[in-house]
Amino acid sequence: MNHIREKEPIFTLSAGPVAAYPRVLRALSSPIQYDYDAYFQAFYESVARKCSTALRTKEPALILHYEPAAAIEAAATSLIGPDDVVLNLASGVYGKGFGYWSARYNKELVEIEVPYNEAIDPQQVEDAFRRRPDIRIVSLVHHDTPSGTINPAREIGATVRKHGALLLVDAVSSFGGMDIHPGDCNADIFITGPGKCLGGAPGVTIVAVSDRAWEHMAANPKAPRASVLSYLDWRDAWSKEKPFPFTPSVAEVNGLDAVLDQYLEEGAENVWQRHALTAKACRAGMQAMGVKLWAKTEEIASPTTTAVRVPESLSDSAILSAAKDLYGVAFSAGRGDTLGKLIRIGHMGPVAEPFYAVIAVSAFGGALRCLGQKIDLTAGVEATMAVIDAAKKK
Amino acid sequence: MNHIREKEPIFTLSAGPVAAYPRVLRALSSPIQYDYDAYFQAFYESVARKCSTALRTKEPALILHYEPAAAIEAAATSLIGPDDVVLNLASGVYGKGFGYWSARYNKELVEIEVPYNEAIDPQQVEDAFRRRPDIRIVSLVHHDTPSGTINPAREIGATVRKHGALLLVDAVSSFGGMDIHPGDCNADIFITGPGKCLGGAPGVTIVAVSDRAWEHMAANPKAPRASVLSYLDWRDAWSKEKPFPFTPSVAEVNGLDAVLDQYLEEGAENVWQRHALTAKACRAGMQAMGVKLWAKTEEIASPTTTAVRVPESLSDSAILSAAKDLYGVAFSAGRGDTLGKLIRIGHMGPVAEPFYAVIAVSAFGGALRCLGQKIDLTAGVEATMAVIDAAKKK
Amino acid sequence: MNHIREKEPIFTLSAGPVAAYPRVLRALSSPIQYDYDAYFQAFYESVARKCSTALRTKEPALILHYEPAAAIEAAATSLIGPDDVVLNLASGVYGKGFGYWSARYNKELVEIEVPYNEAIDPQQVEDAFRRRPDIRIVSLVHHDTPSGTINPAREIGATVRKHGALLLVDAVSSFGGMDIHPGDCNADIFITGPGKCLGGAPGVTIVAVSDRAWEHMAANPKAPRASVLSYLDWRDAWSKEKPFPFTPSVAEVNGLDAVLDQYLEEGAENVWQRHALTAKACRAGMQAMGVKLWAKTEEIASPTTTAVRVPESLSDSAILSAAKDLYGVAFSAGRGDTLGKLIRIGHMGPVAEPFYAVIAVSAFGGALRCLGQKIDLTAGVEATMAVIDAAKKK
Amino acid sequence: MNHIREKEPIFTLSAGPVAAYPRVLRALSSPIQYDYDAYFQAFYESVARKCSTALRTKEPALILHYEPAAAIEAAATSLIGPDDVVLNLASGVYGKGFGYWSARYNKELVEIEVPYNEAIDPQQVEDAFRRRPDIRIVSLVHHDTPSGTINPAREIGATVRKHGALLLVDAVSSFGGMDIHPGDCNADIFITGPGKCLGGAPGVTIVAVSDRAWEHMAANPKAPRASVLSYLDWRDAWSKEKPFPFTPSVAEVNGLDAVLDQYLEEGAENVWQRHALTAKACRAGMQAMGVKLWAKTEEIASPTTTAVRVPESLSDSAILSAAKDLYGVAFSAGRGDTLGKLIRIGHMGPVAEPFYAVIAVSAFGGALRCLGQKIDLTAGVEATMAVIDAAKKK
């Protein structure tokens, strides 16, 4: 027994890990099966196939047994060889970070970087290919979570494909909360996980890998094998006929199965719709209250996370503490370069329900007010509810 | 919903992953908390401290968010620098395997290898240091699971310490099932996990790291940072005041907490005693039945896994299938060089209860018999029960 | 699998059953033990003793294996004999209902009834004893849930004891959410359950029975035996030495154990405090918005349920549907005579957290507004938050 | 936290409550829903309909929110009126017990009683009707659990129907473990529950009631209403359009839903087959060991419970204690008149798997032996395994 003095949040509106759906929690308590038993091997294959149904791909997905950031590192290590020129697209902290991983392995790193409240312009990508037709790999973060902004993955993906390069997409905090799939954006490696919009636990990663990407990895002389960083080790592990290179995280696989059931049974479009509406209601409320969105334009604001600017006279930590202490609501701070500048309200999984926007706006507004900020809390609540009421009346 | 045709085992007597204790399954269904919330940070510190109570170390343990094999690779990567001469002790497949990881990073690999049904002799280690006083790191698998054999870690550890080298111990499948701790064997890196004798889920690792080992890693110019392979990234993450370098596997930490409660509340000595008795009863039954132990001497047979030789005229897979199909009992095959030569019966966690030895012996014997082998099944059952009855009557 | 089209509520703010605490849900998934095994018998005794710790009584509590309404019927059947004059105190639907059960068994029913938005005046009880000194049993509902009103149990209890009568108290929806115990009000039979303020499942009942009440039942020639209605059958069942007359509801006992741990570990006073603050904030918001409380005076409004009047031009079902459909919030209608006249907002167990009052007020106000009612929603939200902010700043 | 010194059984082979299936335990941890919410009402109806699928009846089943013994009492109270002549068939303690309940309400009790190791002969029933054509209600325990014996329900049911009487069948510990349904035996009230062969928790009851039985109850002037003993109160409660008369046990309904999924997805015939085989293997082993079956003939021995005679020189409690202490195996004693005379080994739900017969036989034999009894344990194990091997080889 742990006697922790800190109180658990009443409402977790973080940018992840997020509260899991009840059915996922139950699935996490399923018996731990022996990984080499035929039952578990058949179960694992069924889960890999279910991933691909959700991802709308043909091949069973790759399941990696650690959190998505590790899987992105492993993707860089596995994919990027010493002859590869990599174009890294950085519109935020996570995008920028990929460049550092890339640089460990690539021949040359080319980077497009925009201010962290803006999105990459596909024309910039087109221009980069014109300047550097030898770009072989392009890396993109679809939703740069520390900024709460979305990049135009479809348009960028079309450009990359046109030029014959490989595209790696980090869709960790967008897939499952909005309409994005590997096929939509011609992604060759598309990485996501259950711990964000899918409402599951954060210890496992789902990856869709194209045949072209497998070929590139197989040809990469530096691609790791017999390593936690290896994609190739796990290539065939989805098959019930094949052994696992390492022990899979059985409990996480049990949870992942339920995450996918939840998503597929509710219907992807229904899930996206409630994410979008929650975010729209939240943005409306924040703006009506006089709080500024971080995203330069509302068009690039994520439907799964609302990032708002920290008012000049306040610190982010004071606001976060006030929201937690007064109201039991947990929000997220920024990360790296956005740390201190913004606060993030997650709309992911089970809290991507419109009325949570009322909670977010009133708790955030209440916290600001208690810290002496003059904001119009009731205008915020009104605007939030107006969005919900309008949507539901349809 | 998955409609898997394969039936789940009724009794999982594998060498791991093993069935988890009911309280661990319940803990795995605890709410997923936001990792940056103060509640979770305090909880995480409490779990790291509880690990150290179980490990009987002073410092909070390092928790790594993948399975132990990955943590062993990461240990090699983090610890072994380009100037290090490494003595690798190989008495089995896992010990041998560590040499390959070591060779990626070390200056020179020195290896002592014994037949995989024997144990390392501490004198061999002493001799190695005499020949090569420049050995800087020694690596040892305490229980080489694919062989079901135990190495004399205490004696080897004393020798290593005497010579001033660092000792890395893989105690993944022995800690929690017998009397072994980092301090017992002067281990500088001591790796274990909840998915074996502790009766938990297999997706997380517990490591005790000595100050000397931390210093060595800090001085290693090749020690990875900002990587899933980095130990240094996580060094201070146990503290509730410090951020996590990556997202921890929240559900696995929830499970780990319960694993430790189970172990500490039952009492370590009580837990070891039932592991030892189960194994002793199983060995007695197998031998009485005419089945040969894999271990050259019973002294080195593990109290957490009984490995028995596959009779000459049979294949391991035929025996495993028969035991599963006829009786619903899952055993483990060998691995690598021991594959095909032996079958392993796990005595770990909730199945480390003496009467499971009756199940193991009668199912194994029944399977052999159904495959045409002439064995004396009832002698096996009698011998197994005699051990249990004798122990309980005390 | 059930494919139910109806959506689950996002927020259950009912007057019970209420959402259970996560630890209670986990406990409900504990293994089902054999009731005659010594382990379960010892566990059952420990739970009965833990009940008495919570109830602040000396004797282990009586646990009955159905919901509290059944236990109240059984109390009437077991306690009230053919020679008993019963004074029934009716300030609401549940109080009135007890009179019907009483009348099946008693010699004569004397009743004090007040309008269902008022409380019993202890002086009325004093007067009744003066008129009818032969009153032997008094029955009182402490919190008449269908009205959301509290009766002065302490004062009434003192009067009843003074006159030597037995007092039966229904504290089903007040115990655990406010300061009331059997000793406080001299209750001879005090009935409560885990499904309301304690945040558990509703299928079991906890009863404190005084020695005087046991004696009265033992002397009652009509007290049932070998029956689900019998209290006497279960009198000694708490003891690990005694058999169970019927099979106990093992899963409910597992849940009850966790309910009590939650309550006792958090600390009763802390639990009451958050119930009271949530209700106060809710009442403030409702009134500021122009919604009228059902209770005649705020002093008798329950800290565990806020009952508000249905505006004249609207139906309760329209409001309930709007709150559920627009916002995912489930409230409760009235019961019996209060049905259609009021709506109830529960503040029980895990939702007895102040910020839920913001949810209640904004959802209730939003529903009214969508139905064309002119109310000042923002004044409601402001008033609710003002109460919370004031309390937390202390 | 409870620190119970008694150890939980490792193997629960009781006659119930039995260990629940893992999926049932998980379902018991589902969120507690508000019973008046449309979601729960629709869910409840779906569960009532799923019961009827399992029971192979047309109408949704009646779900009662306490354990089956209470539901049998309630059936007697609801069905048997002051003008009814009741024929009670007593082949065991439970059958005999129903007569006492019947006698509280009936005009006259006619009883056929046979020794408690025998079954009712249908001809006796035919003869009874000849003698007493005014018999209006017949009551039968299909599996008299305290004896482990089965009555010929089909034949008796045909006779009862021929004579126009109503038949009440207690199938609590047979339904779900063998081929018996209300339609098979013309039952008018057929009572069972999830806590025995269905592998669930014991706090709820499933009843199939025929139209004829409902009419009889409706016409019974003494049938209780507004009471926990009333069937009529709950008649329409299955419908999502109708309110609940009392609060249903939400958690138990959640568990019941999973119990039915388990049964229907595995396939009733498959479930019965493994119950039958387990019992057959157990009987073979016990007899080979020299232990005598309680049932006069093997034909009437239950496929869900094996009752064996306590050897003359021993006490049942000594055997039960030895099996628990030495091997962690919990068996059941007898009840009432069979207490002390027999020990019962349950084959129900998840332990109705053939290899559990090996556990039962070796633990029972081992216990006898440790108490000084001369029995041939190995002959028992051999005979048990021979039955399993023969069945699996088919």
Describe this structure in words.
4 copies of one chain form a homotetramer. The first copy, chain A, is built from 12 helices and 14 strands. Chain A is α/β, with parallel strands linked by helices. Chain A folds into 2 domains: 11-17 and 268-393, Aspartate Aminotransferase, domain 1 (Alpha-Beta Complex), CATH 3.90.1150; 22-265, Aspartate Aminotransferase, domain 2 (3-Layer(aba) Sandwich). In chain A, the strands form 4 sheets. A 7-stranded mixed β-sheet of chain A has the order 2-10-9-8-5-3-4, with helices on both faces. In chain A, strands 11-14-13 form a 3-stranded antiparallel β-sheet, covered by helices on one side. In chain A, strands 1-12 form a two-stranded parallel ribbon. In chain A, a hairpin with a 4-residue loop joins strand 6 and strand 7. In chain A, helix 3 (68-79) packs parallel to helix 4 (93-105) and helix 8 (250-266) crosses helix 9 (268-288). The longest helix of chain A is centred in the C-terminal third of the chain and has 21 residues, at 268-288. The first copy, chain A, is globular and about 60 Å long. Chain A starts with 10 loop residues before the first strand and ends with a helix. In chain A, 65% of the residues are buried. At the A-B interface, helix 1, helix 2, helix 3, helix 8 and strand 13 of A face helix 1, helix 2, helix 3, helix 8 and strand 13 of B.
